[in-house]
Structures are given as C-alpha cells and as structure tokens.
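Write out the bound-state structure for adenine.
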Amino acid sequence: MSVEETIKALPKLEQHVHIVGSTKPETLLWLIEDSGADLPYESVEDLEQFYRYKDFPHFLNIYSTVNCTITKESHYERLTYEMMQSQAGCNVKHVEAIYSAWDHVGRGLDFSLMVDSINRGIRKATRDFGVTCTIRIDLVRNYGPEVGMKVLDLIEEKSDNIIAIDTGGSEEGFPPAPYKECYDRAREMGLHVVAHQGEGAGTDYIWECLEYLNPERIGHAVAAGEDTELMKTIAAKGIPIECCPVSNIRTGAVKDLSRHPIRSFMDHGIKVSVNSDDPPMFGTTMNNEYIQLHQKLGFTIEELFKISLDAVETSFLCVEEKERLLKQFQMEYARLI
Ligand code: ADE
Ligand code: ZN
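---
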C-alpha cells in the first residue's frame, strides 16, 4: 500500500465541519433549481469558479449566497446525509457538525423542523455508512449576542442531538467579549463551548476569547502561531485547537501550508485535531487534509494517527464512546502497519 493509501485508510474523527459548507457543486445546482434562486450557474464547472475566494470576507460572502439557496427545512436532510457520506468515504467514524441556525431562522425557516431534518439525514447516514454525528450550533458572531440569546432560547426548547455552541462568521470588528453571557448560559445549559478565533483577525481576539469565553476548544487559531506566550497559555489551559489547514490556505489566513502553525502548536504541547471545515467549498476532504500534512509538512503516518487519537480524546463524546472508538482506531491501525 502506498503512503497515501495508508493515510486514506487511517481511522479519523472530524471535529469541525459546516453542514452548509459541505454542499457539493451538484447539490448546489439542485438547490438553485429547487429554490428558484436567481444565480447564473448551470454546471459543476461554473461552480468550480464560484468556489474560489480572494480572501476570508469573500469566502463568507459566497457562503452566504449558498445559504440563500436553502429555502426549505427539508433541504438539510440531503446536505447532512451527503456530508456524512463523504466523511465515511475518508474513514471518518464520528463527525461533530456545525449548523448556523440563524442564517435560516432569520429568513423565516423553522428551527425545530430544520433540526428534525438534520437528524433524519444523520440517522439515514448512520444506517447506510456506520458513521455517527452530533450537532454544534454556530451563533454566527456578526449577528450579535442578542441573536445568540434567541438561538439559545431555541436550543432550550429543542436540543435533540445538539451538544455544543460556537461563534463563527465574520471575525474582524466583532470581538468575542460581548458573547460572555451567551457562553455562560450555554455552559449552564450543559452545552460544550467552542469559538472560531484567530482565523480572520489577530492574537488580541484570541487573548480576549480566553479571558471572557473560556472555550473548551478553539477553531483555527492560526494567529496564535505568531505569539509564543499565547501558545504557552493555550497549552497550560489544556485547550485543544481544531486545525483546518486547507481552509486556511483557501481563505488566505495562511500564505502556504509550509507556514501553517500546526507543528508549532504541537511543539508547544497543544493537542490538535485536523479538520476539513467546508470541504467542497475549499476543494478538500479529510483524506486530503491528512495527505497535505504528509506531503507539505512531513507528517509521518504515526504522527497522523496520533492526531486521530487526540481528536477522539478531545471530542465531545462520552467516556465510554471515546474508549470504544480508541480501541477501534488501534485495531484498524494495527492491521494497516
Ligand atoms: N462559516 C463557515 N465556514 C466558516 C469559517 N471557516 N470561518 C467562520 N465562519 C464560517
Ligand atoms: Zn469553521
């Protein structure tokens, strides 16, 4: 087996993937047709151009255009099912999927019906491919903390399979501190708390995030690579980082992969996971993320497997599930090498 084939066969856990960001070009064509959206795209080739970005704000703009094609709660079932199908194709055993509820509730869609639709997609994909999935809700920072509180009200009424909250969306100009009450309330509700940070803005927001939001994990955190004190603090607090290497290249958060701080994070004692973020929108998959780390940053199979194990350990699964998955990962690895 080639090194690439072995990497593809490694068992994996995805901690950071957006359901809408997992919309394949052919599925976007179906959404455009089904919703009657006024978009000038008719082929997968057209959409390959559409899925290219000059910077992070441009990516968020395109992402928001894709959001507008979701006009029925039921659309989420297919998006979720296909996301999990692709993940299973990379030997991902468990997914923590991100759903930005207010992107749709703000336009009149029903939260409870969307959650049902997502969970239907999850149940079908688990039955067909064996992969499992839980939901983390992105409050989307640019909507502000008042909307964040409304989303928490919705979760309080219907929490089926929802295990965590997050703040993604725009970063520059939207500091984390105003979200303190949302995060405190989410913790009281028994939810895990994560924050996208240091992706589209600098280290000051990461410091502020640590102080006010006290996240259990940080998404991206690429800016932290410039600040040794910050990396030491993140390590000392035992906060893992959800790295999304190809995403960071596509949005320009990192110039090229050889400059990605993932190794520096690990050298400072921070546990990392490797994730695909918005896979078809960034032309990536979990397999590709791992292969890129091998080809561009010299990660060995052993090191990549250690990342998979750390992703299980720092996941939001219960202790029994973690133990079961760790055993399964070890058994599959033993058969591979
Ligand atoms: N929403 C979808 N993808 C995102 C990303 N990479 N950063 C922030 N918000 C997002
Ligand atoms: Zn993300």
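---
The first strand starts at residue 12 and ends at 18.
Residues 16, 18, 168, 196, 219, 277 surround zinc ion (ligand 2) (CB under 6 Å).
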